[in-house]
Structures are given as C-alpha cells and as structure tokens.
C-alpha cells in the first residue's frame, strides 16, 4: 500500500478531502486502501507506521505483538510506544490513536522487526499482561509456546532474565496456564476465560481433544464430556490454505458426526466471548447454565 510523507501543500489538500489518512506525523496512507483491510490488519499497519515514524520510541504491548505476529484480543487499541529510559514524549503532535506510556525499558529488551523498534517477544507478553491482564497473557503465551525452539522452561528462564519488573507475577501465571495445543486465538480466549473465572462447575478443561475414535478433534472438552467449539470467520477467509467451501463442507460433516453420536457441545462466537454482562462474558454464563442443566439431569 502506497504511503505518503506529510507536509506538502498538495498532501494537506488531499488530507482535508479525506483521500489520505494520517497514521503518524510523518506518514499517511490512502484512506480507501487502508479501510479495505480487516480491522486487525489496520491496527498492524498503524503500529508499523507509528514505529517507522519515530526515531527513538519503541512499540510495546499489543502493538509490538502485532508486528511479531502474536495474536491479541480486541481489534482496536492505540498504537502504544515507550521511550527507553522512561523519557517524556516529544513535543510534536501525534494523531488520535497513539499512546505514550512511561516505563523502564533497557536496550537489551528491544529488537527490530521490519526495521521498526519493538520489545522482544518475552517483554512484549509481559507488557500485555501488565497492561491488559491475565486472560490476554494466556492467549499470547499459547502462541509463544508454539514458536521454534521455545519451551515452557525456556520461556520461564527468559522471564527470570528480565529482572524486577511490574507485571512479572501475572506473566508467570499466564505461562503456567498456557497450552501450545491451542489452535486459534478464539479457542485460547475461551479457555482462558474459564481458567481465570475459576468456575466451581468446571473440574477440567482440555484443548484439542480427539473424539469418535480420533477421527475428529474438538476445541475444548469440559469435565470430560461437554464440548465447546469456537466459531470464527477467519477459517472461512482462505487464510488457512483450505478453500472456504471445502472448509464449510468439512465442518458440516464433522458437526453431523458429533450430533449423530449424541455428544453435547456448545458453539461459541466472538460476540459470546466479548459481550460482558454484570462482569461476566455471555460465554461463561452459557457454559455455567449448560453444566448446571447437565447436573440436574444426571442427579
């Protein structure tokens, strides 16, 4: 996507007309082309532009995660940057959608991705934990544990190497609860919500469990019998390498096989996970009611 450096009269005219969108003081992109991307891609582009437009600041938290390719919860948040050494932000005016945070950030915890300064992966996940909480941290660590040469023991050692830093205890707990078997951010999010909620109705949560003689796998198995399937649109956009029509056919056949076998399952969407009522997601409420209904039937 073509970008443009800000400052010329012609550019300012196009900006007023809405033809270009200012991502940071130095970089703008064609508005129509930018809006054609999915929201999560827009966030990654914005973070990249902000990092590219800053000489000294470092992308942190979810902004750094997007450039590392680490899945994060939520489609929109400000591009977040920190000055190493805890310095104050520059005087120049940043557009809406950019946030400065003050934090102690040693240079050894900084790296580059595509020419943009970002925190290293482990520091990135720690910042996600400290800024956004345990659930977000579990989702991030699920992915980190799938990286080449990364094990739970190595991740724990890298956390120790960070020294004293706020949020480290949350990150250690997130690592304990993380599971490399998770195959999607939605699945990780659902499992993390269950683990953090500590529901008395739940005695076990297992990801990617084989069923029907190993012919199929399910996202989550609760208490050894209740299946939870997370339904997202991503697997139908072709990004998995399987044509959308073929993926839908496979899912229908799998769903029919589970139905015919009489296996109880709960289908959960992004909206179920994201919608919170009285401090609890719609998903957790659905799961609790489902498990209580089962307990009544089998009492």
Report what the structure shows.
The chain contains 12 helices and 14 strands. The chain is of the alpha+beta class and 299 residues long. The chain folds into 2 domains: 37-177, no CATH class; 185-298, Endonuclease, Chain A, CATH 3.40.960. It has a 4-stranded mixed beta sheet. The longest helix is centred in the last third of the chain and has 17 residues, at 244-260. The protein is globular, with a radius of gyration of 22 Å. 34% of the residues are buried. It comes from Corynebacterium pollutisoli. This is Transcriptional regulator, AbiEi antitoxin, Type IV TA system.
Quick description:
By secondary structure, the protein is α+β, with helices and mostly antiparallel strands. The chain has helices at 9-16, 31-35, 39-52, 61-68, 121-132, 134-144, 152-161, 168-177, 185-197, 244-260, 270-274, 282-298; strands at 4-5, 20-24, 27-30, 58-59, 79-82, 98-101, 110-113, 116-119, 205-211, 216-222, 226-231, 265-269, 276-277, 280-281.
C-alpha Rg (nearest Å): 22 Å
Helices, by number, come to 12
Spell the H/E element sequence: EHEEHHEHEEEEHHHHHEEEHEHEEH
How big a fraction of the residues is strand? 15-25%
Overall form: globular
**What is the count of β-strands?**
14
